Amino acid sequence: xxxxxxxxxxxxxxxxxxxxxxxxxxxxxxxxxxYLILQPSSDEFLNTDTLILSAETGPKPSTTSGTKIMLEIxxxxxxxxxxxxxxKEGRMVVGIHPSPNAKIGRYNLSLLSLQGHQxxxxxxxxxxxxxxxxxxxxxxxxxxELQCEEYVMNExxxxxxxxxxxxxxxxxxxxxxxxxxIDICLKVLDNxxxxxxxxxxxxxxxxxxxxxxxxxxxxxxxxxxxGILEGRWQEPYYGGVCPWNWNGSVAILREWxxxxxxxxxxxxCWVFAAVACTVFRCLGIPTRVxxxxxxxxxTNGNLTIDKVCDxxxxxxxxxxxxxxxxxVWVESWMARNDLVAGYDGWQVLDPTPQEKSEGIYCxxxxxxxxxxxxxxxxxxxxxxxxxxxxxxxxxxxQFSDGSKEKVHVETxxxxxxxxxxxxxxxxxxxxxxxxxxxxxxxxERAIFSEADFRNRRIAQPTKKLLVxxxxxxxxxxxxxxxxGITISNCSSATIHCNLNFNAQIMNYNGQPQHRITxxxxxxxxxxxxxxxxxxxxxxxxxxADYLENHHLIRLAALATDLVTHTCALDxxxxxxxxxxxxxxxLGNPVLNRPMKAEIILTNPLSVSLFQCVFTIEGPGxxxxxxxxxxxxxxxxxxxxxxIEFTPMKTGPRKLMVDFDSVKLKDVKGFKNMxxxxx
Length: 678
Description:
single chain, alpha+beta, 6-stranded antiparallel beta sheet, 37 strands, elongated
């Protein structure tokens, strides 16, 4: 029996908010009906009493597993899927209501017709089913249209980096609605270890955002599986892309998919988090990128991060605990039906491979509320995230004879300015209060007491010798660093001391990279209850050859009492700020109309820039990444170049530029625009 099918892709996708992905493929959300039109070749075919719809997903679909749905038209279904039909102008209009708890993924849809004693199957077509945050019965339901627009529909974002005293913005294109990304996201699920080991069992669990979120978090890194990204936290980055050069997720996901699911080199925490955000938003799980400043990596679970310096104040590399200047993860919104009531909502998920969870490198979902309340016995990985925002920092001096002295304990250093992009605006929203009670508050003390983690808190003796380092929290790349050191004698007796000062290039993950300068001052005399001041400078020439992509300089001053041999230490982190890449639009952005933009960069350094590369991208504006090379930009010289592009999608769009050279790296610029449809 012949018939034609109209999947109504344009109308259905519009109603299901998936037209940004495609208007030629049927992509719908669970818990919400979609409609098809069947045009039969005979009136006999219009008898709905003899018709059954079949929707199948997975390699071995079955009704018992919920991967094969049999729908009698206009009949109640215990599976919560429903189908209805009516005849209009000789055509059959079929409405299909997927269950709000249906398995997500690719479905084959067929029509079964009872003809005599035979059942004949007719293939209708294929559709993709996604989570639905607009459906109250869906586990990812988010009761805010504004938040759904931001955390599901927005393809552009801002990631916060830098230090707690100098927070910087990094533009990022998530690109979750580029047409091939949905297929890549489903390929990510199909290449997980659990799916490869037993696809039938895996597909059964694809209705659960908790299961999906753990699977995606594991697959974004490649440590245990055919995952997407390989992490690397230090030079060299040969054979791959420096993590700082990525501007968006699309290029990463396409490279992984187009090269046989081989790992993409390289990622660091914000890249892992941003790619995870793209996958989650594409699948329909509301997700946002979150940055924790002064983020602790506590390997032994004792809530203490030990930092060790030598006698000159140089921080020594350590293999275990660390404090990252910033660390980036994501929060996804979902119900936690596996826990006691009260822990629905935002859940921490961290795809950066730090510690294993149930034998694999993933983290979460950990309810943000459970982290704040210290509910450490709940799933998943709450103690680890709790430490990331609450651990103490303890600094030790290690002397040449191997002995150590504890010189400083900071109880309020870790977990600062926890940040995400403000909903509907490019500003920073501080969400620290969601993770922890205010430092020193009665609630904070009660949480630590209940968790039984703070039994080490011991009052420190009053110190007679103090050191304070003063410098600007940020400087422009190419500038000298002006430093003032104050040594204070808090006793009535005169103190004689030595002073060691040093500056180190630091990686953002808390590991020292290069010692760039060191100075020693002998026998400084400080009278009782008085101060002595030392003024010095770290010139640009000291750090010019070592800055690379780290953009962080740590200044340390260590004073040692020549009589008692007690020490005083102070440390300051200085962010080195790159110039901006400026972008000027030459015309108004209109769909399918070519236009130009001018890119402008001024070299702030006193030396020439060589091997200059401008990388330009913008989903909906440019296909892929475009690169333009410039041989040299002289000192203080301004480079200008024009690019031409044709907007392919309407609405808010972001054109992004990354500049790299031998002496100046990771220079970013972006231009927001709204593409009109005329």
